[in-house]
Amino acid sequence: MTFYIGIAGGMKTGKSSLAKTIAAMYDVEIHSFAEPLRWEVAQAFYHKQEKANARYLWGLLEDEDKEMCRPLLQAWGQAKRDLVDEDYWVSRVRTYIERKGLDVVIIDDVRHVNEAQFVLDNGGIMFWLTASHEVLLERGWSPDNANHESEKQDGTMYYLADKMPTNRVFGMDTSGRSNYGMYMEAERLLNEQNFSFTNFMERRK
Q1: Are 88 and 81 a contacting pair, CB within 8 Å?
Q2: Which distant-in-sequence residues (6+ apart) come within 8 Å of 155 by Cβ?
Q3: Rounded to a whole number, what is the distance in angstroms from the first to the last CA of the chain?
Q4: What is residue 134's predicted lDDT score, i.e. its pLDDT?
Q5: pLDDT tens figures, 120-135
Q6: Confidence at residue 66, expressed as pLDDT on a 0 to 100 scale
Q7: Which of 56, 155, 173, 205 has its CA 20 to 30 A from that of 11?
Q8: How many CB atoms sit inside 10 A of residue 107's CB?
Q9: What are the b/e assignments for 86-106, b being 16+ CB within 10 Å?
C-alpha cells in the first residue's frame, strides 16, 4: 500500500520547496494533482503533436508566461471537477501511482477537501503550510492569482484544522524558514508524535 505525504497551503507558502527537499533527502518521487491536468491541457493546446511533445511544448510555454497559462489550467481543472467528477484528478493520480507500484509518494499540491481526504483515508499524513502576508508578498504572491476557487482553499483549511488534534495533520508557518529549515520543522512536528520521515521511508524496503 502506498504511503502518501500530502502538502497543502496557499500560493507561495512553500509547498514545492518542502516537497523537493524531502524528495532529495530520501529519493522519493513527487506527484501533483496538476500533472495529469497539464498533460490534458497540453494535448488540447497542441493537438497536432504527439503527447510527449505536446507536454514538452506546454512546459516551455509555462516557463515563458506562467501568468497566462495559470487561468487556462484553473479553468480546465475546475471544469473536470464540476462537469465530470469531483474526484476526477484524484482518480487520475491514484491510477498512475498504483500502476507504478510506488511505496512512498509526496503530493505537493493538495488544494481541495477531497484531495486531503484521499491522503488521510489512505493512512497518509498532511502538512498545512502558511506564511505571513509580508513574506507571501516577498515571494511574489498576488491577490489576483489567489482569487480562483482552487487557491482559496477555505474548505480545505477548515477540514484540516478540524483534523489537527489527530497525529497525522501538521500545521507549519514557513515564514523566515529556508528549504532545509522547513524540512527540519516538519521533522520536529513528526517527532512530537513519535513519527519521523525515516520511519515512513522504511516502507520501501
Answers
A1: yes
A2: 112, 113
A3: 13
A4: 87
A5: 999 999 999 989 888 8
A6: 85
A7: 56
A8: 26
A9: eebbbebbbeebeeeebebbb
Question: Which one, of 181, 193, 183, 174, lies nearest residue 25 by Cα?
Answer: 183
pTM: 0.86
Query: Under 8 Å CB-to-CB from 109, ≥6 apart: which residues?
Result: 7, 15, 32, 33, 34
- List phi, psi (to 5°) of 112: -110, 160
Which residue type does 96 have? Y
Q: What is the pLDDT of residue 196?
A: 87
Distance, C-alpha 34 to centroid of its chain: 8
Which ranges of 9-152 would DSSP assign to H, the alpha helix? 15-26, 34-45, 51-64, 66-83, 88-100, 113-121, 133-138, 149-152
Q: Identify the CA nearest to 92 among candidates 74, 82, 80, 104.
A: 80
Closest CA to 115 of 200, 7, 36: 7
Read off the C-alpha cell for 21. Answer: 527537499
Taking residue 153's Cβ as centre, other Cβ atoms within 10 Å add up to: 22
pLDDT in tens, 169-178: 999 999 999 9
